[in-house]
Design a protein that fits this description.
The protein is 42% helix and 14% strand. By secondary structure, it is α/β, with parallel strands linked by helices. The chain has 3 domains: 263 residues, Rossmann fold; 130 residues, Isoleucyl-tRNA Synthetase, Domain 1 (Orthogonal Bundle), CATH 1.10.730; 47 residues, no CATH class. The strands form 6 sheets. It has a 4-stranded parallel sheet with strand order 4-3-10-12, covered by helices on one side. Strand 16 and strand 17 form a beta hairpin. Helix 4 crosses helix 7 and helix 6 packs across helix 7. The protein is elongated, with a radius of gyration of 27 Å. The two termini are 43 Å apart. It binds one RNA strand through helix 1, helix 5, helix 7, strand 14 and helix 10.
Length: 467
RNA sequence: GGCGAGGUAGCAAAGUGGUAAUGCACUGGUCUGCAAAACCGGUAUGCGCGGGUUCAAUUCCCGCCCUCGCCUCCA
């Protein structure tokens, strides 16, 4: 695959080719979850988009180094662990396990490295010390440490917020009344280290500025330095992280190292529910479990999440899950029609070259899916020769692998676990049909349907299918 | 107020300076006793509104309306 993925870059606002700085491995970082509860499908939209990005890069022949953090210390994890009567570690490990289970169900490739913030306190402290020594940070009277935004002239270049514009909006009033803010030199300065407070419980660490804990923005910078270095290929996260989180990361990292930090920024738009924002604070969210309880599978959820371009908001509805189910069935049936008994070798897109090209152009998944169906419709799988169908199936599997889609079982397949009573009714109906007693046959079929079973007739006999 | 994204068929969602992919839903036909499945078709003279540029705009430019997000923890 000579072609390379092109991705929109938030910083330069241009589409740029994604190629490794070291010429070998694409090294990228994704902001991971804060583990204080189950992640919702909006969170997963971002992780799934990043997963597709990684899969496409790998399918195009470039190995990756994927780093994604676990935020296991912040206001919420501390608050909720105390509420649950658990240690912070115990509490966050439980939710981390849940997160991993959901990721596996959604067919997300595990990051190569998944560092936790708590496990990297010394790294964060070291970075703060550097920033203070550089004059980019200062310790306040209460033992907190802040980054001096005015010391970094490029601050705001990612979010395109001018210094004087920062916090001039609705937040100004709120910030000014927060007692914390009085210890800062400027309203725009942000915390690198938060001095210990009574509500932190046992969750504090020693430092030369006193006991406390790292600020949220710092962990990513510190762990990126540790695992990816001063310069790396790509950084990704949800759009809401552009400001202030990623802006702060850039400031912290560029002021404490000589590198340029991320060379490419990928931001994933939000998932909407019925036209509105979905978030923990509003409470209109679905977790993966909410949907599986309603009978939907994780693949179906994944399909919905990738069915809109990652850079545009996607509206989630239950109907979209039904739609995804049917689309996946269509793919599974096409795959079956192409199956002539040889195992697929998904090494090249084959007849799906157009879909692959579409995917390489800023990860246009919906465009690629459309192209896959279009190609399938045109090829008519059932009519292909053995060689053609093998080639087509290889290509289909190549595309599915790049998209991370695993085909579901075909729903209309004959059921194997038909209860004896149902089987007997079905037999009776077949007999009635053979006798051309249509009325009786239809009555029996309706009876079976009411019990949740469908009959499919063929010339030689019938099959019973779960409804 | 500042920054950003978006308005395309019933729903969802691509795309293009030359007259609209695809999935779902709906629908006609073949098949079937009738169905189901499968297969073959159909379904936006139209791409928020109004101007402009052009031989030609949904696609470029200008103005306007509306929706959503960020500016505070947030994927």
């Amino acid at each position: 695959m000579p072609a390379h993925l092109t991705l929109h870059d938030t910083l330069t606002r241009t589409d740029r080719e994604v190629t490794p700085l070291d010429g070998k491995t694409l090294r990228f970082y994704c902001c991971g979850p804060t583990v204080y509860g189950p992640a919702h499908i909006g969170n997963f939209r971002t992780f799934v988009a990043q997963d597709v990005m990684r899969r496409v890069v790998e399918a195009s022949g470039t190995p990756t180094l994927h780093v994604r953090n676990i935020t296991d210390v912040d206001d919420k994890t501390i608050r909720d662990s105390l509420k649950a009567g658990q240690s912070l570690l115990e509490f966050t490990q439980g939710w981390t396990a849940k997160f991993h289970a959901d990721c596996d169900a959604l067919n997300l490739l595990r990051p190569h490295t998944e560092p936790s913030a708590v496990a990297h306190i010394p790294h964060q402290i070291a970075m703060i010390e550097k920033l203070i020594a550089n004059g980019h940070a200062y310790a306040a009277a209460d033992g907190s440490v802040y980054f001096r935004v005015s010391s970094y002239k490029d601050y705001g270049k990612l979010s395109h917020l001018e210094d004087r514009e920062l916090r001039l909006g609705a937040s100004e009033a709120a910030s000014a009344t927060d007692s914390d803010e009085y210890t800062k030199d400027s309203l725009t300065d942000f915390a690198l280290w938060k001095a210990r407070k009574p509500e932190d419980g046992a969750n504090f660490w020693p430092s030369s500025w006193g006991e406390g804990r790292p600020g949220w923005h710092l962990e990513c910078s510190a762990m990126i330095l540790e695992y990816l270095g001063e310069d790396f290929d790509l950084h990704s996260g949800g759009v809401d992280l552009i400001f202030p989180h990623h802006e702060n990361e850039i400031a912290q990292s560029c002021c404490s190292t000589h590198g340029k930090f991320a060379h490419h920024w990928m931001h994933v738009a939000h998932l909407m529910v019925d036209g509105g924002k979905m978030s923990k604070s509003i409470g209109n969210l679905y977790t993966l479990e909410d949907l599986t309880k309603r009978g939907y599978s994780a693949v179906e959820v994944r399909y919905v999440l990738i069915s809109g371009h990652y850079s545009t908001p996607l509206n989630f509805t239950m109907h979209s899950l039904d739609s995804a189910r049917q689309a996946l069935q269509k793919l599974a049936k096409a795959d079956k029609a192409l199956d002539r008994g040889t195992a697929p070798i998904p090494a090249a897109p084959g007849p799906f070259a157009e879909a692959w090209d579409t995917l390489l152009k800023d990860l246009n998944v919906p465009g690629a899916l459309g192209s896959i169906f279009g190609t399938l419709n045109k090829l008519k799988p059932a009519a292909l020769s053995a060689d053609e169908s093998a080639n087509t199936r290889n290509g289909l599997h190549f595309m599915l692998q790049a998209l991370g889609i695993t085909l579901p079982a075909i729903m209309d397949e004959a059921a194997t676990d038909v209860p004896a009573a149902i089987q007997s009714l079905a037999q009776q109906r077949w007999a009635a049909k053979q006798a051309k007693d249509w009325a009786a046959a239809d009555t029996l079929r309706k009876q079976l349907e009411a019990s949740g079973w469908l009959i499919k007739d063929s010339k030689e006999g019938f099959t019973v299918v779960a409804k």
